[in-house]
Write a structure and sequence with these properties.
- With about 90 residues, this protein is mainly α.
- It has one domain.
- The chain starts with 6 loop residues before the first helix and ends in an 8-residue tail after the last helix.
- Helix 1 packs antiparallel against helix 2 and helix 2 packs across helix 3.
């Protein structure tokens, strides 16, 4: 799931685009369903990403005997590769 993090902001964006294009013609309950549904799916994807990230951090900490701060930084650096931080 971590390689599909782009889905999290995309789902509400698509929901708002659908509502912007077709919302004036649809009944209010359909517009609400699209808005809440896309946001809810995005939230569920974010929860899954947090669950997967925390399980990866636990797995890497079981293999690594370094202090906790280094484990957190190394786990963060392996996912967010576009930032360079030197501690």
């Amino acid at each position: 799931m971590l390689e599909y993090l782009w889905i999290i902001p995309l789902l509400p964006l698509l929901g708002s685009a659908v509502n912007g294009l077709f919302g004036a013609k649809w009944p209010n309950k359909f517009v609400n369903a699209v808005a809440i549904g896309s946001t809810g799916l995005s939230f569920l994807c974010a929860l899954e990403a947090v669950r997967e990230f925390s399980s990866q951090a636990r797995f890497s900490s079981a293999r690594n005997s370094s202090p906790g701060l280094r484990r957190a930084i190394s786990a963060r650096a392996s996912i967010f590769r576009w930032t360079n931080s030197r501690w």
